[in-house]
C-alpha cells in the first residue's frame, strides 16, 4: 500500500525532525566536550581524535540531510536551481561516507589497542597505532571525498538537472531515473559500504577471540585484572555497534535498490532507521566513555 504523497511527505519530515535533532544535539555535545578538553590539555589522544571527527561528520550529516528533506517538502523547486542539487548531493555523500569510515576506524582502533595477540604484525600495529590514526582519518576523508566528487559529477549531468527526470526523494539527495550513468556512483558507494562493514566485522571477531583467550587464561590462573574489564567494555560498545551497523548496512543497500521509488513503505522504514542510527550509536559511545558520560549526567538534570 502506497502512502499519499502529501501525507507521506509530512510524516517523513516529522519523523526525520524528531530523530535528527536529538542526534545533532548528542553529537554536538561530544564535539564540545572534546574541544574543551583539547583546549585544556593542548592535546587529544587517538581515541578522542576519532570521536571528535566522528561527532563532526555525524552532526553535519544529520544537519545537511534534514535541511534537504525539509526544503524539498516546502520548496521542491530549489532542486532545479543550478549547483543547489549538486552541492546537496556532494555534502550528503561526503558526510555520510565520512561517518561510515570514521566509525570503522574507531572499531579497528579499539580492537588493536585492547586485543592481545602474540603475532608480530599485530604487536607492530599495537605499537604504531597512535601514529597511524591521523593517516587512517586522512584516508577515510579522501575516500569519502571521492564518493562526494563522483556523486557531484553525476548530479551535474544534464539529465539530472532536467525537472522531468528529477523528483524529491530518498538516498539523501534526489530520486533520479536509474540508468548506466549511475552505476559508477552506486558501485563506489557499495564498495565503501562493504569495505567499512567488513572492517567492523573483523574488529569484532578479533576482539571476541582475544576476550575468549584472555578469559580462559584468567580462569586458569584464578585471577581477574583490568584487561578483562577493558575487553568487556570494548566488546559491549563494538557489538552494540555491530548490530546497528549491520542493520544500517542493509538499509543502505536497500536504499540503493529503492532509490527510484517515491512514497514506498520500505523507503519510509529505511529513512526512519538511517536517521536514528547516528544519534543512537553516539549515545552508546557517550555512556561507554567516562570522560563523556560524566558531563552528560551533570547537565541532563
TrEMBL record:
Gene Ontology molecular function: any one: bitter taste receptor activity
One family name in Pfam for this protein: TAS2R
GO cellular component: membrane
UniProtKB keywords: G-protein coupled receptor, Membrane, Receptor, Sensory transduction, Taste, Transducer, Transmembrane, Transmembrane helix
Parts of the chain that traverse the membrane: 20-39, 87-112, 133-155, 193-212, 238-260, 266-288
Compartments (UniProt record): Membrane
InterPro entries per record: TAS2R
Membrane topology listed for this record: Multi-pass membrane protein
SUPFAM superfamilies in the cross-refs: Family A G protein-coupled receptor-like
Family to which the UniProt record says this protein belongs: Belongs to the G-protein coupled receptor T2R family.
PANTHER family, A to Z: TASTE RECEPTOR TYPE 2, TASTE RECEPTOR TYPE 2 MEMBER 40
Protein name as annotated: Taste receptor type 2
Organism field: Hypocryptadius cinnamomeus
Amino acid at each position: 500500500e502506497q502512502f499519499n504523497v502529501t501525507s507521506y511527505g509530512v510524516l517523513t519530515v516529522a519523523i526525520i525532525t524528531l530523530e535528527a535533532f536529538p542526534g545533532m544535539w548528542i553529537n554536538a555535545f561530544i564535539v564540545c566536550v572534546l574541544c574543551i578538553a583539547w583546549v585544556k590539555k593542548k592535546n587529544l589522544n587517538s581515541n578522542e581524535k576519532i570521536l571528535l571527527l566522528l561527532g563532526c561528520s555525524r552532526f553535519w550529516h544529520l544537519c545537511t540531510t534534514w535541511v534537504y528533506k525539509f526544503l524539498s517538502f516546502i520548496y521542491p523547486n530549489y532542486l532545479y536551481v543550478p549547483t543547489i542539487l549538486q552541492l546537496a548531493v556532494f555534502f550528503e555523500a561526503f558526510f555520510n561516507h565520512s561517518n561510515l569510515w570514521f566509525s570503522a576506524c574507531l572499531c579497528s582502533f579499539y580492537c588493536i589497542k585492547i586485543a592481545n595477540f602474540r603475532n608480530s604484525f599485530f604487536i607492530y600495529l599495537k605499537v604504531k597505532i597512535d601514529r597511524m590514526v591521523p593517516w587512517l582519518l586522512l584516508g577515510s576523508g579522501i575516500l569519502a571525498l571521492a564518493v562526494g566528487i563522483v556523486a557531484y559529477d553525476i548530479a551535474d549531468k544534464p539529465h539530472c538537472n532536467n525537472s522531468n527526470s528529477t523528483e524529491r526523494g530518498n538516498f539523501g539527495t534526489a530520486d533520479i531515473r536509474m540508468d548506466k550513468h549511475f552505476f559508477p556512483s552506486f558501485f563506489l558507494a557499495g564498495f565503501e559500504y562493504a569495505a567499512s562493514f567488513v572492517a567492523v566485522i573483523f574488529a569484532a571477531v578479533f576482539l571476541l577471540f582475544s576476550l575468549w583467550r584472555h578469559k580462559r587464561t584468567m580462569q586458569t590462573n584464578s585471577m581477574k585484572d583490568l584487561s578483562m574489564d577493558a575487553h568487556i567494555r570494548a566488546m559491549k560498545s563494538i557489538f552494540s555497534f555491530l548490530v546497528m551497523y549491520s542493520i544500517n548496512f542493509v538499509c543502505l543497500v536497500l536504499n540503493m535498490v529503492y532509490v527510484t521509488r517515491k512514497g514506498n513503505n520500505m523507503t519510509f522504514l529505511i529513512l526512519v532507521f538511517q536517521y536514528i542510527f547516528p544519534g543512537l550509536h553516539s549515545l552508546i559511545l557517550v555512556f561507554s566513555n567516562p570522560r563523556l558520560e560524566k558531563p552528560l549526567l551533570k547537565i541532563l538534570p
